[in-house]
Amino acid sequence: MKNYKKMLAMGLAALVLGACVPTQTSPGTSTDTINIGYSQLPANIHPAEDYNGWFTVRYGVGETLFKLNNDLQVEPWLAEKIESITDLEWKITLKDNITFQNGEKMTGEKVKQSLEHLLSKSDRAKADLGIASISADGQTVIIKTEQRQPIMANLLAEPYSVIIDVSAEPLAEQGPVATGPYKLTKYIAESGAELEAYEGYWAGTPKTKNLKIKYFTDATAIAAALKSGEVDAVYGLPYANLETFKSDSSNFKTSEVEGSRYVQFSYNLEQAEGQDKQFRQALDTLVDKETYTASLFKGAAKVADTAFPNNFEFALGTSVHEYNVEKAVQLLDEAGYKDTNGDGLREANGQNIKLDLVTYNRLAEMPLSVQAFQQQLKEVGIDSEIITVDKPTTAVSENIYDVLTYTVVAAPIGDPYAYYKSVFYTNGSANIAHYSNPAVDSLIDQLQVEPDQAKRNELSKQIQKLVDEDYIFTYIGHFKVALVMDNNLQGFESHATDYYHVTNQIVKE
To answer: Which ranges of the sequence are coiled-coil (predicted)?
Structure first.
């Protein structure tokens, strides 16, 4: 236990020291240009590919038919309204004053083409939406579904649903022509993007002429860039370093809200020991969530019981998890994972157990989490190796992990259905644990078609309870969503969804 606590202290000190750079000395760039640093940059920002639509929206390039307000309630955006015609039909009326960034009017036919393009490119969207057909007439779109889909507006707020002009000439295949306040002019996947204001933006001409997105792979570098004035704002700053900027209130400010982004350990149910529920329970029991969130995350995260913060009406609010090293030892012993040759390592089928712990640098705190977990494993006689990858998709597709450190926003559309369908459903598009439980699948099927909100909440809690008891994930903590910026920057605010960033209101004053 001493070694575990000592390792936590050393890791945290290293992370915080990375932010100890000189205070701002550069006046920054012209007020005509705003520079924003990000710790993530996809290969492109085509919304139908992977989760790239999040960046299409973050950069102010694309918009969806509906959006979520600060209370995560869905409301119209590019659409004027949505009406349920029958249990299987939705009628969407579009705003009549919107053009794409090439000057073309957004019509029903354009929206139809955009959604059909999405369905042809994204298995995740196709599974979520369940669309059978789409028709258009003027500024009206009719969507027919294969089954009842009571949360169609929520799903059409997901960033994969960004409306694009499919017929427009693509920009080096790296970004779409959409309806947002900023249009993409240059994109280099290794370094960043350049955008310029779209003068014909339907909600009003953007206040700033140019935006530059700068990509940083290093936590120290992104903090230093903000301190020096190289960038005006950052997203992805290590949470342990936030206090450095909060304490310098004469130069910097922070926009911070509670969110549903979590960090978890995912156990691979296709690996030998991972198939054993009691072994997974032992691993779960070794995770000290309280210390992780308080020390490693510097209080920027709250202990997670499930995928959703407990204030969400559809959250279970409890968990079978308990931190208890002695119980973990007992569980391992009872399951037959013992050290029979005296080398200090537990065995399975006559071979020392060695777990591959895979992590990546989406959050600076993630590698620290897995280092702490490795020390805990060592103290109960389990060998492990930490493997750091650029993206978790490689580890998942090649099935090369026993435990994967993972982060995601569980409720980006204000409803849990899409998360359950992709993560827990048998063969779901994001089922990284290779989990399959017929009872869970049945409840998700019921949730998909249930229109009553109270019943949806109850189904959601039942799903979480079953998954929790199967020990496929250890949810560690929910993070706040934080944007840190120079004091003179206005109109750049955090949102609980974690993807509404740039608007036409962003400006340096």
So the answer is: none
